[in-house]
């Protein structure tokens, strides 16, 4: 029994480590060496939700279930689903990334800059927490850096799979909070890769 628990733990660690490995797709991360400031851009085009055909099907399912319980809850859910992006996910990524660098050696911001760092979320799984059973939120994302004046001039592009978010010692009942922690983890992981491989 003890061996089984150890094996399960090792598999979990291995899966998590693999999920957070940078998969370089275009350009070279070393080309980012001298860039100090990036303008942030976030893209959710064609984002996939596990177990659903598309985001629209996911929203319909969640909204219908909430409307059955209380009128208006469906629309409130849809509004918060989209509002959480600029209000929670984006600030969480920016904050998490910026605090990794001493004396603001490298920074990301919403204001204009010569270079843009674009986060394209390709998978978004909100996870769940119903008290006795919970599952982390997860995202897949592609990070692309290009000259702001010329999006076709890509310096680097790479992706991460199954970046997990959790927090509050397991008391993360709000899906927006769980997902925001995915973006904090993504920022932390990319900042480490950038520091290790390019700076």
Automatic annotation (TrEMBL):
Keywords (A to Z) from UniProt: Signal
From which domain of life does this come?
Answer: Bacteria
Show which residues constitute the signal peptide.
1-19
UniProt KW Signal keyword: yes
> What is the protein name for this chain?
DUF4468 domain-containing protein
Give the organism's phylogenetic lineage: Bacteria, Pseudomonadati, Bacteroidota, Flavobacteriia, Flavobacteriales
């Amino acid at each position: 029994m003890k061996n089984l628990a150890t094996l399960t733990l090792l598999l979990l660690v291995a899966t998590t480590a693999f999920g957070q490995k940078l998969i370089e797709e275009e350009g070279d991360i070393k080309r980012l060496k001298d860039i100090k400031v990036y303008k942030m851009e976030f893209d959710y085009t064609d984002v996939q939700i596990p177990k659903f055909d598309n985001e629209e099907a996911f929203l319909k399912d969640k909204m219908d279930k909430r409307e059955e319980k209380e009128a208006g809850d469906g629309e409130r859910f849809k509004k918060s689903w989209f509002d959480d992006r600029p209000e929670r996910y984006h600030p969480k990524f920016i904050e998490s990334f910026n605090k990794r660098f001493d004396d603001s050696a490298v920074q990301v911001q919403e204001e204009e800059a010569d270079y843009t760092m674009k986060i394209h979320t390709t998978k978004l799984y909100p996870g769940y927490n119903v008290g006795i059973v919970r599952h982390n939120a997860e995202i897949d994302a592609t990070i692309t850096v290009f000259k702001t004046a010329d999006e076709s001039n890509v310096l680097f592009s790479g992706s991460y799979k199954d970046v997990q978010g959790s927090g509050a010692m397991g008391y993360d009942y709000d899906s927006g909070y769980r997902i925001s922690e995915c973006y904090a983890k993504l920022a932390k992981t990319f900042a480490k890769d950038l520091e290790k491989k390019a700076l």
